[in-house]
Amino acid sequence: MRADICDPSEEKKVARFRAVLAELGAKKKKEGSGLGVDLRIVYIQKSEVRIFQDAWSLDIEGPEAIVSDIVERMKK
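and the corresponding structure tokens:
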């Protein structure tokens, strides 16, 4: 499942996203970039979650249950 989190210029939302990842115990595996898109791979509950960021958006992709949980926590 893939979900749009926010515009990377929205500092409060980006900070909340990082806090949500910390709450879920995300462990960074690796980072990379190409064609103007940064990619971070983290593990949450032994599942891989990919975080994509470019100048316009911050998106995530991973198992439906985890992505849904992140989206719901972002609403708080």
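(Above: one complete record from the training split.) The chain has a mean pLDDT of 94.
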